[in-house]
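Example 5.3 — Contractile injection system tube protein N-terminal domain-containing protein
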Amino acid sequence: MTSFPNSPKVLKGGLVLIDPESSRVLRVISLQYNPEKLTRSLQVQAAGGEAANRSEAMRFKGPAIETFRLEADIDAADQLEFPDQNRGTVDHGVAPQLAVLEALANPGSAQLLEVHRQADSGTLEIAPMEAPLMLFVWGKNRIVPVRLTEFSITEEAFDPALNPIVAKVSIGLRVLSVDDLGFSHKGGSLFMAYLQGKERLAGQAQSGSFGSLGIGGIG
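Solution (predicted structure tokens):
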């Protein structure tokens, strides 16, 4: 069945994983359904914190710490309608899609085995395992490097083999700024583009007037 020809194409939000050294795209994770709500919060980084002295009262220490929170639904119904074309869903429900998201919260098994090998060989200093650079993509004007901070899954329905066929995932993300990555890092340049995009949007907003505030000016 085809959709109405004049219906607008709905873009999907998602995540992109990039090799931090080569910038090669490793995986694109597209949400099956866009969440109805996206919650954002910004924690201001003021110089000296809340107890700043007079000389620092109006100074920033760095970019605000921004976080995202969203909930997304994953449902096997569309795939199960065409079982011959979706054997993975028939055999495992939505477990493969959940496994892709769960992998964001864990180092790879190969990384763990390599750390174990180094420990057994007597390596004195073992570097922490590096994750791919994760980008949160919410339209072409909002592409920002992030780190996964919170992830939960609620499996809501199951097939006869107890494979999950309906699930809801809750995802918490923290934006990585130039404070975290530096200006020369690929993620740092993407953060700066994100910040500059916000500044351009702010420039398009109409400025208010003293009259709207009920005052004649600042004396």
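Remark. The chain has a mean pLDDT of 89.
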